[in-house]
Amino acid sequence: MLSTTSGNQTTTTRHLVRRALAACATVLLVAAVSVAAAGTAAAAGTGLKKVHDPGRVTGTIHGHCSYRDHGQLPDPRCTPGSIDPDVTQADIRSTICKDGWTATVRPPESQTEKFKHDVAYPAYGTPQSEPTELDHLVPLELGGSNDATNLWPEWPPSPNPKDKVEDALNAAVCDGTVSLAAAQDAIAADWMTAEHVLGIGPVISPGGGPPKPWCTASASWDSYYGDYDITVHSNQYDVKATATASDGASDWWWTDRSGNSVIWLYGAGSGDTVKVTAGAASCSTAA
User: Fold this and answer.
1) How far from 57 is each of 110, 158, 221, 222, CA to CA, in Å?
2) Helices then strands (H, E): number in the chain?
3) For the whole model, what pTM was predicted?
4) Right CATH number for 212-286 from 2.60.40, 1.10.3210, 3.30.70, 3.30.980?
5) What is residue 56's DSSP assignment?
6) Which of 63, 161, 166, 224 is deepest in the core (most CB within 10 A)?
């Protein structure tokens, strides 16, 4: 509802117009991306590297690698994930959806253990005494390759929470819920959010339970609109994010599927502390 005072009415009207313009821009962007993505998918499918190497480890890791998310994710420069081009959507019934198929393409333990200790451990700075699993980032049951770009030392070793995600994605591909390419891309990007991104399950924590909610926020002054743009990053997906200044000025917007949101806050003064909530998470920033 518009305010009855002319000054506030102007501000609120401008605010609503900005929302409308942003929404229109989003619709146009999504449409353009969808058309482009459709063309790309028809031509090449997933953008992951394609390596056909059944039954053998190939490639190597160059340079220093760093774990992400406290060791739960590999370095995307060293281990971006890669797939076997011979595993396609058209042949999943004779490959990944067929009982026992992964055993026909899995390298022997002598090769995986040598790669783990001689290549992966030194690259990731992992002590030789550390118990890990040489994990396929894109699992064999989703058509992952045995190339170095798809291998990393994962802790804890199997069984671990990622195993359940791999099984869930394989089941979703085999029952037609999601496409093979979508599942491959999602798990290569982040196995902990893969089910959520694909719409088949929640975000999970390394322990297998609900993740502890968190958020961070930053503020920047927009001189054109005369407001603070509050940028929110969180692990709270598709929830209401609210920013509130100490004088009571408040506004909100939804987080996207990546847990991010931008809130346009009118009324906050320079140096003010703005409190933010994103679902069950809370954080603050200085305006």
Assistant:
1) 10, 19, 52, 53
2) 6, 11
3) 0.62
4) 2.60.40
5) S
6) 166
